[in-house]
Design goal:
- By secondary structure, the protein is mainly β.
- It has one domain: Lipocalin (Beta Barrel).
- It contains four helices and 16 strands.
- A ten-stranded antiparallel β-barrel has the order 1-2-4-5-8-9-12-14-15-16.
- The longest helix has 8 residues.
- The termini are close together.
């Protein structure tokens, strides 16, 4: 690994939940995160609606990306002391994500952070969960919690829309394959408020209409024998969760410039949701079996009275 902690985390004094420690000793405490440690490399697609101070209030940036995502080995047992219930231990790994724009040849994203597993708890009454904590240099921190499941076979990757909607309302339904009513999202209409300019043939209208189509195209023809799904969000479900579903914690925090003042935000990162798929791809005529990591992530940027979906997707292979 390129980076590791000098000393693993461990409690200075024993936790008061020995039954949890005994259970954890029999299995990998990282659970369904266990396949992540290592270096993953690949490519993807990023689109972001940016606020524009001038003759337009919006600007659409489209990026073909090259990405490196590195995960450490386990950082050790992370003690969380309990008051309303006995203590728990988290298990975690830290990561460094670096994303480059292929056409411009510049870095566009650097993100250090942690993934952790949390055991079942009684107060609150929660099943086992996973969480991702991220720091973004633009001035945003993210804490997103959710679930991890595994099954045999290939993933189901649903469409995703970049269509903005009023702040505080639900995203519109059935718009994942229809571009927003703005010229910037219609690649057949020339505009100075879109990059790259001109649009290369490698960026298509289908990609803008549904960024997740880049993911489904990447796995077309592959035989995926096993999938682990990590689904996380910074916001709890709007309705009460069903039995055994987590009422997840988390949230986003932004510097003052992003939050803005009485006139509204400049570009407040209000919410993040993401799905990661760890896929086992069977050997084929062109090579041996390998591990593959795909993800789709949507950040809602609030400005000009709308929530603008900022969608990033990538397909990476483990080195």
């Amino acid at each position: 690994m390129a980076f590791e902690l000098k000393d693993k985390i461990a409690p200075v004094d024993p936790l008061t939940r020995p039954e949890f420690q005994a259970a954890a000793a029999a299995v990998n405490p990282l659970g369904l995160l266990a396949a992540l440690p290592g270096k993953w490399v690949g490519k993807g697609f990023n689109q972001i609606w940016r606020p524009f101070h001038g003759t337009s209030d919006r600007f659409l940036e489209l990026n073909l990306t090259k990405e490196t995502l590195e995960f450490s080995r386990s950082v050790g047992a992370i003690p969380n002391r309990g008051l309303l219930q006995p203590d728990i231990e988290l298990a975690g790994i830290y990561y460094l994500q670096q994303v480059k724009d292929v056409l411009a040849g510049v870095g566009i994203h650097v993100e250090p952070g942690f993934w952790v597993t949390a055991p079942l708890t009684t107060n609150p009454a929660e099943p086992a969960t996973v969480a991702r904590m991220a720091s973004i240099p633009h001035g945003t921190t993210v804490n997103a919690q959710g679930t991890a499941i595994a099954f045999s076979g290939r993933p189901t990757i649903n469409p995703v829309s970049i269509r903005p909607f009023p702040i505080g309302s639900a995203p519109p339904l059935n718009t994942a394959v229809a571009f927003p009513p703005f010229n910037e999202a219609n690649l057949s209409v020339p505009t100075t408020f879109r990059l790259p300019n001109p649009i290369p043939p490698s960026i298509t209208q289908a990609m803008v209409n549904n960024p997740n189509s880049v993911l489904t195209a990447a796995i077309a023809g592959q035989t995926i024998t096993h999938t682990t799904v990590l689904t996380i969000s910074t916001k709890a479900p709007a309705a009460p969760p069903p039995p055994a579903a987590p009422n997840v914690g988390g949230g986003t925090d932004n510097i003052a410039f992003l939050q803005g003042g009485p006139a509204g935000p400049n570009a407040d990162a209000a919410q993040m949701t993401a799905i990661f798929w760890i896929e086992r791809v069977a050997a084929g005529p062109h090579g041996p079996a390998f591990l593959q990591l795909q993800y789709t992530q949507t950040v809602l940027l609030n400005f000009k009275r709308l929530s603008w979906p900022h969608v990033s997707v990538a397909t990476l292979r483990k080195r």
